Amino acid sequence: MRLHLDCGSAALDMNSDRTRIQAFSLVELFMVMTILGFTAAIVFPMVGRSLRGSRLRAAARETVMLGRYARSMAVLNQESLVLVFDLDAHTMALLTERSREARKTRTLDKVRIDWVEIGETGMQATDGQAEALYRNNGTCVPYRLRLRDEQGQTILVDVDRFSSATTENE
């Protein structure tokens, strides 16, 4: 049986003898699934490690940015500000020196502050609060702190007297 339809310039020819159903074989599907499985087994652990490290890097960036903000606001408003690190609550707060009014507060997500070293004395605070003073002339008391995530990875944040910050993986 042969059917020929002519629809203007396009013609459709259906021949029941040549009609074939095309599909993937079971072997081809199995091969694709195996390749996807191997790819997932390699990629997912890498993504997990990358996400874990991102919290620590984000906390370090947040610390540096808060210090830069403190310096800018101290110079702009011509008033000294205090950056308070609460090692028990894992927060950082920017306060005015005189009234102790909070300007900004940041809580670290799944990252804790191990210790803070204020000044060049080498004395480290491991609990309670530590304060770094930002003066209205753009300088600050140098400080260092170590941040630690849940997996034990650490980053050291070092801020010099001119408010220039560096970070270093330990």
Question: Could you describe the 3D structure shown?
Answer:
The protein is α+β, with helices and mostly antiparallel strands and 170 residues long. The protein has a single domain (26-169), classed as minor pseudopilin epsh domain (minor pseudopilin epsh fold), CATH 3.55.40. Helix content is 31%, strand content 38%. It has one helix and eleven strands. The protein has one helix at 26-77, and strands at residues 2-7, 10-15, 81-86, 91-96, 102-107, 111-118, 124-125, 129-134, 143-149, 154-159, 165-169. The protein has a five-stranded antiparallel β-sheet, covered by helices on one side. Strand 10 (154-159) and strand 11 (165-169) form a beta hairpin. The longest helix is centred in the N-terminal third of the chain and has 52 residues, at 26-77. The radius of gyration is 31 Å and the shape is elongated. The termini are far apart. The model has no long low-confidence stretch (mean pLDDT 85).
How is the topology of this model organized?
Layout: E1 2-7, E2 10-15, H1 26-77, E3 81-86, E4 91-96, E5 102-107, E6 111-118, E7 124-125, E8 129-134, E9 143-149, E10 154-159, E11 165-169
Antiparallel strand pairs: 1-2, 3-4, 3-8, 4-5, 6-7, 6-9, 9-10, 10-11
Number of helices: 1
User: How far is the first residue's CA from the last residue's CA?
Assistant: 80 Å
Looking at this structure, what is the CATH superfamily? minor pseudopilin epsh domain
Mean pLDDT: 85
- Walk across the major sheet and give the strand order: 7-6-9-10-11
Shape: elongated
- CATH class equals Alpha Beta
Report the sheet-strand fraction. Answer: 35-45%
The H/E string reads EEHEEEEEEEEE
Q: Uncertain runs with pLDDT below 50, 5 residues or more?
A: none
Q: State the total count of DSSP E strands.
A: 11
Estimated helix fraction: 25-40%
User: What is the subunit organization of this protein?
Assistant: single chain
Radius of gyration: 31 Å
Summing up helix and strand content along with how strands pair, one would put the structural category as alpha+beta
| Biggest pleated sheet | 5 strands, antiparallel
What is the second-level CATH architecture? 3-Layer(bab) Sandwich
Supply the number of structural domains.
1
